[in-house]
C-alpha cells in the first residue's frame, strides 16, 4: 500500500470492525474535519492527492469500507442497503471523537454518506456527492421518480458483474487485457486519454477489493424477468439495488446540511446512458433478448439525482451542482483544481 508523504495510515478498532484510516493532520487553527468515503472497487488511497491539497486548518480523514483497502473483510448484509457501510463509518468517527464533519462520498460512497445523513443528521456539517450513485440505487428503476421496473429488480445486483473482471481482481491482475482492473480504470473510472503518475497506485487500490458472495460482487437469484437474474441478499452490488436502497428520505429531514454535487459530463458509470446498466446495454444490442424500452428502459441516474436534490432545495436545503465538461467518473482526479475550489467553498458553508 503506497502512502504519500504527509499522510499517515492507522488501524482503528471499533465495536463493528477494524478499519483502515488515512489521515492528513491539521497544523493550523481553527480546524475543520473532512471525511472522505471511497467508492466501489477502490479504497481510501484514491483520496490522497486531494487530502494533501487542503489547507493546513483541515483535518482530512479517509476511511476504508469493509472489504476494501486495509479494513477488515466482513460480510455485507445487502438487505440493509448501504447501512452496513454507513454504520461502520459512524463507528470510526465515534472512536476518533469526531462529532461533526464535512462528508465527501464518491460513487457508492455518495450513497454511503447519504445513508449516514439519514441516520445521523447531526454528524453531517455539509455533504459533497462526487459522481454519486442515484438516491434510487443502481439499475432497475425508471423515470425521474425512480419507480421500480419489476418487483424482483431483475437485472440488478451481484449477477450483473463480469465474472472475468472478478477473477482478475481475485488473482491480482496488473496487466492491460480488456477486462483487467487497469483497463477498467483507464476506460471507465476516468475519461480517456486521462492518465497520471499515480495510476499504478489506483490499480493497487482496486485490487484491495475482497471478492466473493459476501463481498464483491455478491450473490444473485433466478428471475422470470429479463435478463434472468435478480439480486441476492449479500454482497456489494446488491446493496444498491432498488429494493434494498433508497435515500430519497433526505428530502424530509428537518436538519438539512448544504449539499454539493460534483459530476462529469462524460461519466460512463453513473449516467443516464451507463455502460454498467444492463437495460442500456440491452438497448444497444450488447445483451440479447432486451424486452424493449417500455419494460426495461435505461435508468436516468443523473435526472433522478437532480430531481431529488431539487426537491431537497425546495424543502429548504442548499444545493450546489457542479457539472464538469470533459470529465469521467473521477472529478477529484481529472479536474483537481476545479474540484478543490468547489470543496473549499463548501467547507465555508
Brief summary of the model shown:
By secondary structure, the chain is of the alpha/beta class. Helix content is 28%, strand content 19%. The chain contains 11 helices and 14 strands.
Descriptive terms for the model:
19% strand, 349 residues, two-stranded antiparallel ribbon
Can you offer a commentary on this structure?
This protein is α/β, with parallel strands linked by helices and 349 residues long. 28% of the residues lie in helices and 19% in strands. The chain has an 8-stranded mixed β-sheet with strand order 1-2-4-3-5-6-13-14, sandwiched between helices. A two-stranded antiparallel sheet has the order 7-8. Strands 9-10 form a two-stranded parallel sheet. Strand 11 and strand 12 form a beta hairpin. The longest helix is centred in the C-terminal third of the chain and has 14 residues. The model has no long low-confidence stretch (mean pLDDT 98).
> What spatial order of strands do you see in the largest sheet?
1-2-4-3-5-6-13-14
The radius of gyration computed from the alpha-carbon positions, rounded to a whole number of angstroms, is 19 Å
The end-to-end span amounts to 34 Å
Please trace the helix and strand order, writing H or E for each element: EEEHEHEHEEEHHHEEEEHEHHEHH
* Structural class designation: alpha/beta
Largest sheet descriptor: 8 strands, mixed
Query: Average pLDDT across residues?
Result: 98
Amino acid at each position: 500500500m503506497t502512502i504519500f508523504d504527509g499522510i499517515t495510515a492507522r488501524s482503528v478498532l471499533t465495536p463493528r470492525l477494524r478499519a483502515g484510516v488515512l489521515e492528513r493532520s491539521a497544523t493550523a487553527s481553527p480546524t475543520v474535519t473532512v471525511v472522505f468515503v471511497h467508492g466501489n472497487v477502490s479504497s481510501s488511497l484514491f483520496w490522497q492527492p486531494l487530502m494533501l491539497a487542503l489547507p493546513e486548518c483541515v483535518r482530512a480523514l479517509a476511511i476504508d469500507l469493509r472489504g476494501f483497502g486495509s479494513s477488515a473483510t466482513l460480510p455485507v448484509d445487502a438487505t440493509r442497503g448501504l447501512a452496513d457501510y454507513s454504520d461502520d463509518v459512524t463507528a470510526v468517527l465515534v472512536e476518533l471523537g469526531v462529532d461533526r464533519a464535512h462528508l465527501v462520498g464518491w460513487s457508492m460512497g455518495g450513497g454511503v454518506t447519504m445513508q449516514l445523513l439519514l441516520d445521523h443528521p447531526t454528524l453531517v456539517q455539509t455533504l459533497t456527492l462526487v459522481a454519486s450513485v442515484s438516491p434510487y440505487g443502481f439499475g432497475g428503476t425508471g423515470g425521474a421518480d425512480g419507480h421500480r421496473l419489476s418487483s424482483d429488480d431483475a437485472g440488478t445486483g451481484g449477477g450483473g458483474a463480469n465474472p472475468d473482471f472478478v477473477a482478475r481482481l481475485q488473482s491480482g491482475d496488473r496487466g492491460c487485457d480488456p477486462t483487467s482492473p487497469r483497463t477498467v480504470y483507464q476506460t471507465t473510472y476516468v475519461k480517456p486519454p486521462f492518465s497520471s503518475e499515480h495510476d499504478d497506485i489506483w490499480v493497487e487500490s482496486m485490487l484491495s477489493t475482497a471478492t466473493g458472495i459476501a463481498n464483491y460482487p455478491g450473490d444473485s437469484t433466478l428471475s422470470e424477468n429479463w435478463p434472468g437474474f435478480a439480486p441476492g441478499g449479500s454482497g456489494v452490488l446488491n446493496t444498491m439495488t432498488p429494493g434494498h436502497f433508497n435515500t430519497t428520505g433526505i428530502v424530509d429531514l428537518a436538519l438539512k446540511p448544504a449539499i454539493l454535487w460534483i459530476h462529469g459530463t462524460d461519466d460512463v458509470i453513473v449516467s443516464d446512458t451507463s455502460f454498467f446498466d444492463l437495460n442500456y446495454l440491452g438497448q444497444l444490442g450488447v445483451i440479447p433478448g432486451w424486452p424493449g424500452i417500455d419494460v426495461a428502459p435505461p435508468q436516468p441516474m443523473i435526472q433522478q439525482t437532480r430531481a431529488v436534490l431539487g426537491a431537497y432545495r425546495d424543502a429548504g436545503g442548499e444545493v450546489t451542482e457542479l457539472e464538469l465538461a470533459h470529465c469521467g467518473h473521477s472529478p477529484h482526479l481529472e479536474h483537481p483544481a476545479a474540484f478543490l475550489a468547489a470543496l473549499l467553498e463548501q467547507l465555508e458553508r
